[in-house]
Design a protein that fits this description.
α1 runs parallel beside α6 and α5 crosses α6. The C terminus is likely disordered. The protein has nine helices and ten strands. It is α+β, with helices and mostly antiparallel strands. The strands form three sheets. Strands 1-6-7-5 form a four-stranded antiparallel sheet, with no helix packed on it. A four-stranded antiparallel sheet has the order 2-3-4-8, covered by helices on one side. Strands 9-10 form a two-stranded antiparallel ribbon.
């Protein structure tokens, strides 16, 4: 799933390639991708792009005098830029293409989604706050005003485990499964540690890991073409998606805990005092 650093990189890329260009056609290929119907996607046509913004993991294409195109790429969605879009109308139901946006220049982008779980979402709205997912977002962790005191206030009394708290978009916007693993590894904390149990020193350490991990990921992604962002993300991850590989910090084997529809990765030596965490799903399978 694209998270804050990748979506921020896409925002920068689209700002450069879309701003000032006129949208001439919006083609929803998979109707399921549209989460709003009034105004229709065609209301974007004939308007120039005024700017591109990011809200957590949401991308917002603002037009001059028209509505805004807000999208969430979900788990398996992606944006593909094309300097020259194919001619002709795309055929519904053929491949992963969900929506196409064409510019006056002949360039544009496709939104695609792999797999069978169709969660890619597109909204055409006058105000991004009309999108429920945007309206409920917590603060952006890279915003200038997001200091350690505000972070500590968010975690005060939070009875959830750190892994779940970091991924809650209404608590902190933009962090998902991959970067929560990376942040906790950098902070040397167990994903199962209760947020409310943190000492002042631990809170400071987690805050620094949050800001540093995301800032470094954004810097790695800055200027990278949209088509190469996925590979760039993977290359910078130290524990997420690296089960069985050596930890780059201590050399211990990266372990995994599996859930029904996801998994987390961690280093026992760095994060849990050398003790492997119980993988409940695997334990059930072995019974």
């Amino acid at each position: 799933m694209p998270e804050l650093p990748e979506v921020e990189a896409l925002r920068g890329f689209l700002t450069e390639h879309l701003t000032g260009r006129e949208i001439v056609r919006v083609l929803p290929v998979a109707i399921s991708v549209l989460k709003t119907y009034d105004p229709p996607p065609t209301a974007l046509e004939g308007h120039r792009v005024a700017g591109v913004h990011r809200y957590g993991k949401f991308l917002d294409v603002e037009t001059e005098g028209g509505p805004r195109l807000v999208t969430h790429l979900a788990r398996a969605g992606w944006l593909h830029w094309k300097d020259s879009l194919p001619s002709g109308m795309p055929r519904p139901g053929k491949g992963p293409l969900a929506l196409r946006v064409a510019l006056e220049t002949g360039a544009g982008f496709d939104l695609t989604e792999a797999g069978t779980q169709k969660r890619l979402a597109v909204y055409v709205v006058a105000d991004p706050q009309e999108v429920p997912g945007v309206a409920r977002l917590g603060p952006d962790p890279l915003a200038d005003g997001f200091d350690e005191a505000r972070f500590a206030a968010l975690l005060d009394g939070e009875r959830r485990q750190l892994k779940g708290a970091l991924r809650d978009q209404s608590l902190i916007a933009g962090v998902g499964n991959a970067y929560s693993d990376e942040i906790l590894h950098a902070a040397k904390m167990s994903p199962f540690k209760l947020a409310a149990s943190l000492t002042d020193e631990e809170t400071a350490r987690l805050y620094a890991a949050l800001r540093d991990t995301l800032t470094q990921a954004v810097e790695r992604s800055r200027g990278v073409a949209a088509g190469r962002l996925k590979a760039e993300k993977k290359s910078g991850l130290r524990v997420h998606g690296r089960t069985g590989e050596p930890c780059p910090v201590c050399g211990d084997t990266v372990r995994e805990v599996s859930f029904s529809d996801s998994s987390l990765q961690y280093c026992p030596t760095c994060q849990t005092g050398g003790k492997p965490l119980a993988d409940r799903r695997m334990s059930r399978l072995l019974k």
